[in-house]
Design a protein that fits this description.
Largest sheet of chain B: 7 strands, mixed
Strand content of chain A: over 45%
Shape of chain B: globular
Number of helices of chain B: 0
Number of strands of chain B: 11
Structural class of chain B: mainly beta
Shape of chain A: globular
Order of helices and strands of chain B: EEEEEEEEEEE
Helix content of chain A: under 10%
Oligomer: heterodimer
Distance between the termini of chain B: 37 Å
Distance between the termini of chain A: 40 Å
Chain lengths: ~110, ~110
């Protein structure tokens, strides 16, 4: 059973701070990692993808991957109230054709 | 570029009925996946289709079925509806199934 674990939160950070969201996964064969943002009542939106160890930056977002520790994280710099949402970590294992498996998400609240 | 289109957006059915949901993927995307989202369980994988073939299937009863047509459009069917089938059903498409998925707006199914 391939699993993706996230702290459900809520994670509360003040406006302008760095929000750090974490995710661990059980399948060591996992190769593709994604972060989705989901606003209440909306569908998930892809915000970051990462495929190799290290950091990947896109604007205020940085994804970090450590395959040895089976750990992926998302940093949001200069957090804004509009960043308040649920953030979903998702993983694909390339050991055979496998689906995109989601964690249950971390609810982030940015306080103005 | 048109996104993923799901119809209908909302549906109310009674127990025992059956329902068909439709999904049109982004043009050029050959992989279509379906997910059920409920507050307690998060995003649960139903099945994935690629080039008209079911490539992966989640742990749902046989009442849940799907198919994909030659134009990549997909449908999912739920027969003998139960109250517990009330959920947001999300369709997502990708080019290969190993890259980032784009979600549709979902179909909110309520079973009464």
């Amino acid at each position: 059973q391939k699993e993706v674990e996230q702290n459900s939160g809520p994670l509360s950070v003040p406006e302008g701070a760095i929000a750090s969201l974490n995710c661990t996964y059980s399948d060591r064969g996992s190769q593709s990692f994604f972060w989705y943002r989901q606003y209440s009542g909306k569908s998930p939106e892809l915000i970051m993808s990462i495929y190799s160890n290290g950091d990947k930056e896109d604007g205020r977002f940085t994804a970090q991957l450590n395959k040895a520790s089976q750990y992926v994280s998302l940093l949001i710099r200069d957090s804004q109230p509009s960043d308040s949402a649920t953030y979903l970590c998702a993983v694909i294992s390339n050991s055979g054709n496998t689906p995109l498996v989601f964690g249950k998400g971390t609810r982030l609240s940015v306080i103005a | 570029k048109a996104g993923v289109t799901q119809t209908p957006r909302y549906l109310i059915k009674t127990r025992g009925q059956q329902v068909t949901l439709s999904c049109s993927p982004i043009s050029g995307h050959r992989s279509v996946s379906w997910y059920q989202q409920t507050p307690g369980q998060g995003l649960q994988f139903l099945f994935e289709y690629f080039s008209e073939t079911q490539r992966n299937k989640g742990n749902f009863p046989g009442r849940f079925s799907g198919r994909q047509f030659s134009n990549s459009r997909s449908e999912m069917n739920v027969s003998t509806l139960e109250l517990g089938d009330s959920a947001l059903y999300l369709c997502a498409s990708s080019m290969t199934g190993n890259d980032g998925y784009t979600f549709g707006s979902g179909t909110r199914l309520t079973v009464v």
